[in-house]
Amino acid sequence: MDLVPALEEPLKKVLGPATAKVMAEHLGLHSVGDLLHHYPRRYEERGQLTHLADLPMDEHVTVVAQVADARLHTFASAKAPRGKGQRLEVTITDGSGRLQLVFFGHGVHKPHKELLPGTRAMFAGKVSLFNRRLQLAHPAYELLRGDAEETVETWAGALIPLYPATAKLESWKIGKAIQTVLPSAQEAVDPLPESLREGRGLVPLPEALLKIHRPHTKADIADAHARLKWDEAFVLQVALARRRHADAQLPSVPRKPAPDGLLSAFDDRLPFTLTDGQQKVSKEIFDDLATDHPMHRLLQGEVGSGKTLVALRAMLAVVDAGGQAAMLAPTEVLAQQHHRSIVEMMGELAEGGMLGGSEQGTKVTLLTGSMGTAARRQAMLDLVTGEAGIVIGTHALIEDKVQFHDLGLVVVDEQHRFGVEQRDALRGKGKQPPHLLVMTATPIPRTVAMTVFGDLETSVLDQLPAGRSPIASHVVPAADKPHFLTRAWERVREEVENGHQAYVVCPRIGDEEDDPKKARKSAEDEAEKRPPLAVLDIADQLAKGPLSGLRVEVLHGRMHPDNKDAVMRRFAAGETHVLVATTVIEVGVNVPNATAMVIMDADRFGVSQLHQLRGRVGRGSAAGLCLLVSEMPEASPARQRLNAVAATLDGFELSRIDLEQRREGDVLGQAQSGARTSLRVLAVIEDEEIIAEARQEATAVVEADPELTGLPGLRTALDALLDEEREQYLEKG
């Protein structure tokens, strides 16, 4: 690997140990290269104060302005009873708005001498409200001393980069550190192949780094952004293309279903016909299974679009062809649920080798971490002998002790909860690498699919099966209109009286140590200052109050697996009227008789999560109802998010809203984890075209030169993105 000495230089050598320590601890920056890739968040034109109306409360801001007025007040206080207490009040302006700065005590001397009317400076501090006026108390500041002959216009027009900063490290200190290392940018090795860079009219990397940190014009910033977005998209897509290329070289056993085998027998049992979408996606999967290299396919679909049925048919095809299939679920509740529903769907076909079982049948085995020793031993024996054609389990399937007779297909449910390491550990259990099908019920915008799941081909199920009912969704403003909440519980009671069941979802279990400080920290506004509502508290209140007389049970992740399973069984059997649960019911839980869901503190859940939860109702012929309860004020972003969820049942539309409202890093999860690899300038929704083009270019580059021997700059950039193990196991959030 070509080292780039100037860019690999540790910051402590260049900036000194104290500054380097703060940069490492607070910003995750360790080398000169890291610092050069810490780009400005935005730029201020000198003399342009961030519009005062836009200053966010309780946030750390940097503003550029001129001192209009400075007054020193002396007053008596407990600490200075003889009237010697001092307070310096400074008013700054950008010509269109004003902001108050205040300094107290010994902290007034320096600003009193320096912040004279007419002085220009950058100020950084936390915005607070005092006497109904916005102010910065004890802000840090940096005087802007222009050349004597510099005109006001030139001074005001200069672009000042403002960096993502922390209270420990103001933007201008980061700016000064970057000025120190900027000459090293000349030695940055360009990761883009020259033909690609020139063909797309992109500036060289050293020039892009200079322009992003020291722009003379807005065009400079645009040039730098255009170039650096390509770097991020291309290097990531090359990593994914190399993984796809390596996977395509692996051998695998083709699995073609027998003409009159298990799959045909299963299809004959189905009481309905497959949707066009299910048939199309099944064909894509069966075509892949018939090839002699492993399938790597992502199956994404709307909540309730029948993904499990499609996956089961793929598993049956593999069993038909003499192999075994394993389904990996993220939780025990989900593994048990899948096991139950698959056994129900297959009927006597799931009783292979048992009395009364079908001759064509196979055994469907469950394997989870909490099973008793005898049951576990039997399950493992069924796997190693090949007695069980299908196994459903949790992480327990990945353990070294678990051996298969001939593993042909791995189905991973809810990919975002599994890392590639776990996927590969299970794949390593086949005689040859098994085929892989990943299912996700969270619809993913195309660009995120290309970015996070870029090593997989994608199939989309966007049709709901016939007979699925629409779900009406409403926001219940508990703070503004408490009688709406009363009505919500009446609606739940009505559903139960009509022979149906309901879920109530809460963000917390309730037996945790309550930490009021933690609850306050996430404050979006006053309403956030109480801890989130808890399952145990709400269940108790409902059973004694609005739902008294109904059978109310609780379900959460900290219960013993046997208890969880028993609760789910009673609910599925209709013995329980109302299930008060955490998000353990988010995916895969299928109780067609449950028609209503009330989500408490709904604003504390993400958009996709709310969509997932809502998908648990309306699974039968009766219409579904989802009530989103929130104490947030009407105008808050949280309420707008809930209104968006209530307004549409289209998961793909919601996933775009979700992505627009959250930082990309949250959506991409661990895929870009770590300071050096997070997306800095690439915006997954806006830059869809760049990502799609980068994927094409990356695929072509990797096919021509899989080892990238002719592109040392690209190899270096890949090594920065992924160390050797990371490239093999590109983490998925």
Give an overview in words.
With 733 residues, the protein is α/β, with parallel strands linked by helices. The chain folds into four domains: 1-41 and 178-188, no CATH class; 42-162, OB fold (Dihydrolipoamide Acetyltransferase, E2P) (Beta Barrel), CATH 2.40.50; 191-323 and 406-467 and 653-671 and 680-733, Rossmann fold (3-Layer(aba) Sandwich), CATH 3.40.50; 471-648, 3-Layer(aba) Sandwich (Rossmann fold). The protein is built from 28 helices and 21 strands. The strands form four sheets. The protein has a seven-stranded parallel sheet with strand order 11-12-10-13-14-9-15, with helices on both faces. α9 packs across α10 and α12 packs parallel to α13 (307-320). The longest helix is centred in the N-terminal third of the chain and has 32 residues, at 218-249.
